[in-house]
Specification:
The complex is a heterodimer of chains A (114) and B (121).
Chain A: E1 5-7, E2 10-13, E3 19-24, E4 31-37, E5 44-50, E6 53-57, E7 65-68, E8 75-79, E9 88-95, E10 104-105, E11 109-113
Parallel strand pairs in A: 2-11
Antiparallel strand pairs in A: 1-3, 3-8, 4-5, 4-9, 5-6, 7-8, 9-10, 9-11
Chain B: E1 4-5, E2 10-14, E3 19-21, E4 24-25, E5 32-39, E6 46-52, E7 60-61, E8 64-69, E9 74-79, E10 88-96, E11 110-111, E12 115-120
Parallel strand pairs in B: 2-12
Antiparallel strand pairs in B: 1-4, 3-9, 5-6, 5-10, 7-8, 8-9, 10-11, 10-12
Classes of the chains: A mainly beta (114), B mainly beta (121).
Chain lengths: 114, 121
Amino acid sequence: DTGVSQNPRHKITKRGQNVTFRCDPISEHNRLYWYRQTLGQGPEFLTYFQNEAQLEKSRLLSDRFSAERPKGSFSTLEIQRTEQGDSAMYLCASSYGRTQETQYFGPGTRLLVL
Amino acid sequence: AQKITQTQPGMFVQEKEAVTLDCTYDTSDPSYGLFWYKQPSSGEMIFLIYQGSYDQQNATEGRYSLNFQKARKSANLVISASQLGDSAMYFCAMREKGYRRVAGTASKLTFGTGTRLQVTL
């Protein structure tokens, strides 16, 4: 399978706990995006990496959220001190910098904070 | 103002019929791209079709075509010969290329709220 992969697919946690999600992009893609999708809404942009550099962050990404892409390959998204409002689907996408630059998405990680 | 507007929360279509899903957008950027994605109940976003703002012809990909009307800022998705497997959420998205941006930086996708399509027998 050469698509974008995400782990875990599902995560249930208690309020106040920390969680970490992983995204493995398509191997030749240099750009990686994180989005959050809540019920009944379209995905909302969180942050973007070009290689290992984090180039853009949304105001949605509070201080409790941190993302890394240490070697320009896989990426992690960590949420500290989770709140019930963090419950959502977290989607990762990757692309290669060309004119069209289609973003290809992974299956997502569904987070439920109790 | 919403950048992407999808006014149809839900649509029904009979199998083998064609259906049009509406999308209007708002941008002052002269260079942008418009995308349609399909999201089945499993959750994965599947890329369907792309239209660039400078493309002269409407995009087509198999049974999918994009009715691009630049002056009206609309980019409607047309699915021909609907199949039961087409039942899913459909999202319209825009990427503003941001001509003032530093060269080499990419732009996020802005999504609409989606249209749920149900294909019936």
